[in-house]
Design the sequence.
């Protein structure tokens, strides 16, 4: 079944209060649409332009108030939903993910297990363009890499579009906004920018679902997603688990297992 | 009355040279790595050829993202205060669009409202604007709906309009005359071309005075929350905006020394109006989005007799979720006011 038809059905039967998908925006862009009526569901579109990770909305209070929602999902969206379940931010029954294939056919994924099974069919791949730059950065000396990021981060204006777009940046009160005590300088000067992005990358290590929305959101085109991509890969390599793989995943960096390869903790 | 000249294409190179030789730096749109942004340039060849707008506005030249307001150091029994001198470099802004040039007036309205801000004024005094009229537009543009236009002169010291073989040059202010005086031979007498035929046509999208008149009655309308449902609450729109002037003051201090910094802030942030009590009068994104629209289209006209928007569309282009300001204003213009 196609998305519009499925959305109409779900809304008319009362199974969900809203279907979160995409509509045609300006400049040929695609943008989020909260379809709350069968009529609005007619505006839903699905194509390659529908890149945004809509899971970032399901933890927002204004959106939660709408009631149970179906969400048009790419693999990265599904990973984010599982990770949000693992972190106990949403319950399985709060959201109905609608997985879409390239032909636009919809599959309802009514349980976390169904999401996990679906994801097992979709190999997780970093886009070639990102992989190329990551490889280039990895090949640099530490000094060169530091200079690269200093140059990029000097252009940051700290608008927090990266944080606001991230499905895993759901904290109601972010460390960046704390002022008693103030952990990170708020101003967008060299130190403030560098500390912000470093802390954010560390906080997403083992939690980043590699959707790339932070980089897409950046108004000055800093490839900021490469920091969290790299941190995530590092955790995956060392702990053997990736973010968003399961709804029952303990956080790699704060979980102890008796068979841990390190001995210092025993 | 503006003096009108013809500036041949070949005059741009020597014009840049005499400007630089006079001790001024030139900031202009560049497109290095495909990113359209203002950078220092030394020749016209470095200026982007194919841009509608830069991503960030030029407001950073007078209202930088971080400005040191004071610094202090303490010793036992003694506090030493330092009043920073604004680092205002003589600057020529070349190639910004008429909409952005008009934006400086909206900043001026706040920074010279009751208190004259020395940092803003020091930078503005050192700034000359050579605007370039628009021969292209995109669907975020709506200058003509907010009193501007693709060849509007407000805010520019010299406005260049591209034409066959060079530019129509309108010298509009004393600062503009001072730039011409650096090399008067580069400017030929004007030849009476019709500017309106050289610039792009931007049809008006909505009736702004009617919208402004209607906004008070629309305050409780549901459309603001509906429009803002997809807003993620970042500050991209405010930070790229040439007229958004809200700032925060941050103190960076340890027991021995400290400094006070003025930084950009945004009414879209959930903490913008958060009270110490925990109460927030703008608790939802819909209320914060409404504030953004009202500040620009209702409170600015009421308080300063001008709009807080120049229709440049930078917010729309920067928005990660396509919050299209023009489209939202058109929707508000068409909304029914409930009695």
Sequence:
């Amino acid at each position: 079944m196609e998305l519009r038809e499925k959305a109409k059905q779900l809304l008319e039967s009362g199974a969900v209060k809203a279907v979160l998908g995409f509509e045609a925006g300006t400049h040929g862009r695609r943008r989020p649409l909260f379809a709350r009526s069968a009529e609005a569901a007619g505006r839903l579109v699905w194509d390659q332009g529908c890149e945004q990770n809509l899971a970032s909305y399901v933890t927002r209070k204004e959106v939660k108030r709408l009631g149970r929602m179906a969400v048009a999902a790419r693999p990265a969206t599904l990973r984010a939903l599982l990770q949000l379940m693992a972190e106990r931010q949403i319950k399985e029954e709060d959201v109905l993910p609608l997985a879409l294939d390239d032909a636009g056919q919809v599959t309802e994924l009514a349980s976390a297990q169904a999401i996990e099974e679906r994801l097992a069919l979709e190999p997780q791949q970093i886009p070639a363009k990102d992989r190329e730059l990551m490889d280039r950065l990895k090949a640099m000396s530490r000094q060169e890499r530091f200079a690269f990021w200093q140059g990029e981060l000097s252009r940051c204006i700290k608008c927090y579009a990266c944080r606001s777009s991230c499905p895993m940046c759901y904290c109601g009160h972010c460390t960046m906004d704390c002022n008693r005590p103030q952990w990170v300088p708020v101003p967008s000067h060299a130190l403030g920018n560098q500390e912000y992005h470093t802390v954010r990358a560390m906080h997403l290590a083992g939690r980043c679902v590699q959707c790339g929305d932070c980089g897409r959101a950046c108004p000055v085109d800093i490839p900021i997603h490469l920091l969290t991509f790299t941190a995530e890969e590092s955790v995956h390599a060392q702990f053997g688990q990736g973010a968003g793989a399961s709804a029952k995943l303990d956080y790699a960096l704060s979980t102890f297992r008796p068979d841990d390869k390190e001995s210092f903790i025993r | 009355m503006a003096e009108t000249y013809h500036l041949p294409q070949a005059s741009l190179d020597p014009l840049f040279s005499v400007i630089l030789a006079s001790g001024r730096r030139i900031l202009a749109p560049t497109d290095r790595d495909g990113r359209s942004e203002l950078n220092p340039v030394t020749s016209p060849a470095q200026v982007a050829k194919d841009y509608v707008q830069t991503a960030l506005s030029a407001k950073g030249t007078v209202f930088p993202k971080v400005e040191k307001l004071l610094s202090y150091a303490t010793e036992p029994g003694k506090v030493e205060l330092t009043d920073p001198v604004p680092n205002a470099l003589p600057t020529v802004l070349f190639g910004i669009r008429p909409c952005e040039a008009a934006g400086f007036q909206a900043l001026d309205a706040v920074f010279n409202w009751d208190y004259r801000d020395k940092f803003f004024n020091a930078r503005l005094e050192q700034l000359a604007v050579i605007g370039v009229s628009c021969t292209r537009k995109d669907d975020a543009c709506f200058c003509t709906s907010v009193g501007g236009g693709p060849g509007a002169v407000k805010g520019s010291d010299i406005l260049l309009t591209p034409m066959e073989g060079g530019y129509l040059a309108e010298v509009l202010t004393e600062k503009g005359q001072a730039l011409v005086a650096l090399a008067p031979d580069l400017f030929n007498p004007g030849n009476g071309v019709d500017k309106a035929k050289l610039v792009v046509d931007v049809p008006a999208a909505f009736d702004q005075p009617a919208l402004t008149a209607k906004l008070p009655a629309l305050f409780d309308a549901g459309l603001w929350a509906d429009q803002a449902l997809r807003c993620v609450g970042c500050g991209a729109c405010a930070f790229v905006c040439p007229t958004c002037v809200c700032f925060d003051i941050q103190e960076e201090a340890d027991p021995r020394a400290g400094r006070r910094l003025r930084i950009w802030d945004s009414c879209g942030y959930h903490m913008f109006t958060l009270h110490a009590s925990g109460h927030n009068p703008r608790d939802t994104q819909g209320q914060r989005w409404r504030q953004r629209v009202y500040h620009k289209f209702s409170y600015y006209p009421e308080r300063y007799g001008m709009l807080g928007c120049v229709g440049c569309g930078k917010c729309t282009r920067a928005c990660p979720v396509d919050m299209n300001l023009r489209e939202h204003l058109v929707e508000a213009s068409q909304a029914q006011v409930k009695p």
Notes: The interface with chain B takes residues 25-27, 29, 31-34, 52, 56-57, 60-63, 155, 157-161, 163-165, 177, 185-189, 213, 216-217, 219-221 of chain A (CB under 8 Å). The first helix of chain A runs from residue 3 to 13.
